[in-house]
Task: structure prediction
Amino acid sequence: MRDYTKTTFQRIPPTARLFFGAVQSVVEHDSYFMQKRNSAGILGLSPLQKITAAFRMLAYGVPADATDEFIRIGENTAIESLKRFVQAVVEVFGDEYLRSPNNIDTARLLEMGEVRGFRGSHNDINVLHRSPLFAKLTEGQAPEVNYTINGHNYTMSYYLADGIYPPWATFVKTITSPQGNKKKLFSQAQEGARKDVERAFGVLQARFSIVRGPTRF
Result:
């Protein structure tokens, strides 16, 4: 397995660097992905072949038997590679990336909202469905925040939302048919900040089929 952490690793583009970094971590975690020789001395599949097969199934939604045309890997091996890759990603990166936001993350999100002109706000996709921050809010465990708007002090965060959400105080919705420059400016800023997250999620869906639906074995 090539060591992608050396000088050559620094010269490749950032997106490729991210991919090769994930490959390096997964191979170090699970020896299944290491390239080996069989009893006849023939060199087997490389880590890149196995992990690329898993990535193609996750990103493009192709079935396992279609990976052979591009990567020269059998269907059973592609399925096994996918299962082991997903498990390795959870075990290696789960504590850092697959967790609920902590206090540091929450502070960073609030700071981003303040930069956009919405002090004390969070933004999310369908917060009623699976937002860890909103779930804590419903249990009375909202993260501590302190901010002042129009001379009033607030200790609870709020969410930028559209018209499909219920009329709760924690949701700050856009103004339908705004009249006057002040309300028009607010609506424009609220929709812009809210749609940034929707656009980012749309890009994620476009690039990774697994976000839209399950992988086809």
About this structure: The longest helix spans residues 181-207. The chain is about 50% helix and 5% strand. Strands lie at 121-122, 147-149, 152-154, 158-161, 171-173. The longest strand covers residues 158-161.
